[in-house]
Every structure is written in C-alpha cells, then in structure tokens.
Amino acid sequence: MNSIAAVRSFNSAEPAWAQACAVIDASGADVAVATTSAGAVFAAASESAIARDDAAGVVIAADASLVDRDSLLHTLELSPDATDAQVILRAYLKWGRECAAHLSGDFAFVVGDGRSGELLAARDLMGVRPLYCRDGGDGSIAFSSTLRGLSTTATATAIDERHLAAFVLGQDNDRGSTFYRDIRRIPAGHSMQCSSGGSMLQAYWSPDDIEPVELSGDGEYADAFRSLFLVAVMDRLSEDGVAAALSGGLDSSAIVCAAREMYGWRSDRLHAISLVFPDLPPEELGRIDERAFIGSVTEAGGLRALQVRGDRMSPLDDVAHIIDVLDEPFAAPNLYLHRGMYAAASSAGTRVFLDGFDGDSVVGHGLHRLERLLAAGSYEQYRDEVRWFAARRGVPPASVVRLHGLPYLRSLARERKLVQWARLAQRFHTDFSMSRRELYRDHGPGLRDFDATTAGALALLDPDLASLRWGAADETDSPFAGLMRPVFQTTLELASRTARVYNLEPAYPFFDRRLMEFCMGLPDEQRFHDGWTRIVMRRALEGILPPAIQWRAAKSNLTPAFVRGMRTDDVALVRDVDFNVLADYVRVDVLDAMRREALDGGWERIDLFLLFRMITLAIWMGRSAHSRTTPPAGRERVRSLVETSLAAV
User: Fold this and answer.
1) Largest Cα–Cα separation, the chain
2) Which ranges constitute the DSSP H helices of 406-467?
3) Please, which of 105, 120, 523, 582 could form a disulfide with 111 given CB 3.0 to 4.6 Å?
4) Residue 344: exposed, middle, or buried by beta-carbon count in 10 A (0-12, 13-18, 19+)?
5) How many CA atoms lie within 13 A of 193 on its CB side?
6) Based on the number of CB atoms within 10 Å of its own CB, is 348 exposed (0-12), middle (13-18) or buried (19 or more)?
7) In angstroms, rounded to a whole number, what is the distance separating the alpha carbons of residues 275 and 253?
8) Is the per-residue pLDDT at 648 higher than 60?
9) Judging by beta carbons within 10 Å of its beta carbon (0-12, 13-18, 19+), is residue 387 exposed, middle or buried?
10) For residue 248, is pLDDT > 50?
C-alpha cells in the first residue's frame, strides 16, 4: 500500500507549496512528487504510485491494487507492465469522471487535470483503501491517505461533536464524517469532483443497482459461484507467496483451501495463520476453540500452519501506539487479534494478507427470506424453514422467531394491520410456544420503540437522554444494507492502516466486485434453503472444503477472549486512564462509576464495549491538542446533536 497526498489551490495557478509540504510531511507520502500546470501538487510513498501524461496535462497519485487487469489492459491498450497508477490514468483519459465505475480491486486515487484545472478523487466500492479530504476554506483543498496528513492546523483539529456523540453511543453517524470537523472521508463507492466552483460528491456504485441473476438450477448457480470465487482468490495471490487468516470458519477456510490448490500445494507459498486460546478456562474455551476445524484444513498439508496465541494478547495492548497510527480512537474490540496475525505474517516474510472478513455478509445468510415468506403469506414454508434452521444450529425454534419473525410482527402492529397481527401472533403461540401476553406486551399494538442497548451510553452523555425513544429501525428490503453501513467502512480502514505498520497489504477475495455483484443478484433460495445459510457457497465448494467445515452450522465467538483480556491484562490501564479529558462531552461521574463497578468485580454487569470505547477516546484526547482546539460548547452541544439525531430516526 502507498500513502498518497494531493493539494490544490483554486485561487492561484502557482503550486500551494506551503500547504502541500505540511500535508506531505505528515502523511508520509514524500518519495515521489509531481505537479500539474494548474498548480496541483501530488505526492506518494513510491514512484510507481505517481503517473502522468504530459501531453494531456494529467497527473495521478494512486494507492491501488487492481484486479481483472487483463480485461482493463486490453480495453485501454496498455502493456502488461503498466502500473496500477498508469492504468487508472488511462481509464480517466478514456472515461473521465466515470472512470472509477470501470475499475475492480482496492484503490484510492486523486487525478489532477491541467486542462480543466479540476481534481477527481475516488475510493473503491468497499472503502478498503482510506482517503480523506479537507477544504481549507481559502480556496484550497487537500487529500491524504491518512488523517494525520490533514490535521496539521488548529482549525483542522476542531472536533466534530456529532461524530463524537455517535461514537459514544456506539451508533453509525455517516460514511463521510471523521472526528475532525473540517476533515471528511471520501465514502466507499464514491468519487469527488473539485473545481473553482466547489466540490461535488457522487456515488458510482450501489447494491441497489445490481441486476438479478437468473440461471437454470442449483448446479448452474454453484458452478458460477465456484468460478468467480476461484478467480477472486487467484487475482490476489502473489508470486512470492501470501499469508492468509484461517479461523476454521467457512469463509477463511474457503480462501485458504482455494489458494492451496492454486499454489499446487507448495507449502513455501502459503502461510495459514490461526488464532488459538488454549489457556482459557474450559467454559470459555468451548465458545472460542476452533482447533479441530483448523486442523481439518492444515493436516492435509500444502501450507505452512502458524498459530498465534490469542490468549496471551489483550485488547488494550500498546493501544497508545495504535491510536497514534490511526490518529483517532477506535471501537473495534478485536483489532488486537488482527495485529497479532499481521505480526506473524510480516515475520513470515509475506506482503499480502488474505482475509475472509465478512464474507458471510457478501454471500448473504439469506435469513431475510424468512421475513419475506411471512410477508408473502407463506407461513407454512416459514415454519418449516425455522424448524430446520433451529435444528441445524441446536437452538430452540422460538429463538429464531425472535430474531426473524417478531420484527415483522411489530411492523404489522405499527401499520395497524391488527387482523394480520392477531393471526400471526396466534400461530407463533401455537407452533413455537411463545407467550401470548409477551407477544402483546412487547410486540403488539401498544409497543414502544426503544433500543435498550443504548441506554447506558445515553446516560453517559446526559441523564435526560436515557428517556428518549428511538424511532423504528431503518427497514430496508436489501439483505446487503449492512455492507454500506459506516461501521463496516471504518473497520476496513482500521485494518488497512494497522496492516501498513507491518508492511502488509490486506486483500479480501469476497469483496471482489464480480463475486459481490453475482451474490447480490442471487434469488433468496440460493442463500437460504432447508435451514442452511449460504447454501450456494456450500454447494459450490464441494471437493475444495473439508466436509466438516463445508456443512458446519455455527461459528465461534471471540467475546470471551476480549472480556478476559480487559479484566486481567488490561486492568491497570482501565484503572489509570484519565477520563477528565472528556469532561466537555460526557458525565465523568457516570463513567467513573462504571469503572469502579468493573474494578470491584462487576465486569459482567457493565457495558464492557462502551468502557472500551471510552478508554480509547480518552487516550486519544489526552495524547493530542484536540481538547484545546474544540469550541467550548461542550456537553450541551453534544446533547443537542444527539437529541436531533434520535428525533430523526
């Protein structure tokens, strides 16, 4: 990966060297520098990340790892040795502002067009490669791969209270905001056009635009998935070998097994890295131990198996350094485990890290099908699917209905469809032994929508906020809405920026555009059928995956390791962190009471994930000048912002 930066002053044709030098120095993109005739300055951490066409007067800085290159090279009439930056530059010359829509892979780039004087910035459709921008307010605009590259002035470091409030609440804000009021993200799947007349942000890709996939039967769907998946893995392999996460789950195991086939079972090319937790107590180990599934892959050979002791790591280990790298607090509780795998991959001499992160969200569990069956009036089929799914998971059918039936029942109550509500409630009572009283009280015509999981965080911001009601959740018919949530993009950014410390490039085969669009176009029954989630993938990987993994119904939970790490290895940091630096934003007395409860042995009685977020926020605030450059509005402004956000839900 490459750090890139770009600065343009629209008030002058002269290069904005003062601003550019500050951005370049802070971002680390100081190896290659280029300018356009319009005065834009570009920089990157390697020569290959800069490309220019002097005849056209166009320059680009790109942090990119493109796939499906052969098709692009043919279309753009380029030789195989063209760099990714050169490919994107040629794509811009051919398609202009629409060029990002023709690219596949992970990328963030800024193009400067000396002919028009405009800049064009864009990010890949999932947001794997970070890209931030800051409007200087003086006719200048700057872009950088890092937040630090743009937070170089007092005005740039004023805090965005709305973003901070959302962080405290554990809620999404928007995909463009950051902790800095004047620094914005370029959202995933978007491009930004900048000129003297201003900036325009537009989406070039959306799941809503995907066409349905219609094939003749299960076999054709499975064959198509298999072909696209194998290509997605192959396009991300390196001649020098790769490392790959191997959790024992369906997604990571599929990637490792496919890569092993493509490397011809050469163990010197593929390093499979697994987390193990042998020292956890038996009752906790049972929820997290995947060694049997991992072994079903590694014992066949054809790879080098590496184990990382997750039970000897802690969530807040070296957290101050990580916050310095990220230049913002973070809420990802398992980032420390990925750091351990990145360190192992780096020590093995690899530079590419294959990750199956959220492959299940791409393929789709298909559980939306249950609600759709109810909406279509196909109750008997719904009942049968619930029973099959519950049997495969070893859980009571009523627990499945609570997640994938009661939300639909509540929607009937909200829409005052009382006859349909009563009929469905009676069926839930008869078929799943659910209490009529509970159904009416909690999911009936008199229901009150409130997300109780946010109560602790609301009280932390201000006592009055706890009494606010949440509106109905955003209900979308798309099973892929989660992929577009801000938290998803933020998680990928954290991974990319952390991996950079280890000189690694994370690669996500399931985020291959070709595979994603195929999965998003699948009919529901190819995702969920006879109680099996991701059924098309299970069928497709016959003969590649060990059967024990191919047909496993559940997966492990990493929460026990997080909880144990916080209450043992991290207890000193929990005790000593200074929450007073947050006094302008939260009730420190409430936060201190939460900490005392934990330290007195009540770890299970508090929201440990909220405490984790507050610790990273306090460390970030304390290690910077952010608190000094923030306007004094403080808690009242945050409260107002949160109230406004809640009222709009």
Assistant:
1) 77
2) 406-414, 418-432, 436-443, 455-461
3) 120
4) buried
5) 15
6) middle
7) 13
8) no
9) middle
10) yes
Q: Which of 366, 346, 352, 300 is nearest to 509 (CA)?
A: 352
What confidence tier does 166 reach under pLDDT thresholds 50, 70, 90? confident
Q: How far is CA 170 from CA 165, 330, 484, in A?
A: 9, 11, 17
To the nearest 5 percent, what fractions of the chain are helix, strand and coil?
A: 50, 15, 35
DSSP string, 561-586: HHHHHHHTTTHHHHHH--GGGGTTTS
Strands 352-354 and 505-507: parallel
Rounded to whole angstroms, the Cα distance separating 285 from 278 reads 7
| Contact of 23 with 38, CB cutoff 8 Å | no
Q: Which of 127, 116, 68, 128 is nearest to 92 (CA)?
A: 116
CATH of domain 4-205: 3.60.20.10
Residue 422 in tokens: 């009563």
Residue 260, pLDDT > 90, answer yes
**Entry field: residues in the chain:** 649
* DSSP H helical ranges for 140-289: 161-169, 218-234, 250-262, 282-288
Alpha carbon of 578 to those of 58, 572, 618: distances in Å?
A: 50, 12, 7
- Tens-place pLDDT, residues 103-135: 999 999 999 998 888 899 999 999 999 999 988
424: CB partners within 8 A, 6+ apart: 374, 379, 408, 409, 412
Which residues are CB-neighbours of 360 under 8 A, at least 6 positions away?
250, 251, 533, 534
> Residue 469 has which token pair?
């009601």
CATH topology of domain 218-362+479-550: Rossmann fold (3.40.50)
Q: What average pLDDT is seen over the chain?
A: 85
DSSP for residue 545: B
412-466 pLDDT tens trace: 888 888 888 888 988 998 999 888 888 887 787 765 444 444 555 555 554 433 3
578's torsion region: left (phi>0), alpha (psi -120 to 50) or beta? Answer: beta
Residue 199 parent element (H or E): strand 198-203
Q: How confident is the model at residue 642 (pLDDT cuts 50, 70, 90)?
A: very low
Using the predicted structure, report yes or no on whether residue 638 has a pLDDT greater than 60.
Answer: no
User: Which pair of tokens denotes residue 280?
Assistant: 């956890």
Written as six digits, the tokens of 592 are 């201190």
Distance CA 558, CA 612 (A): 15
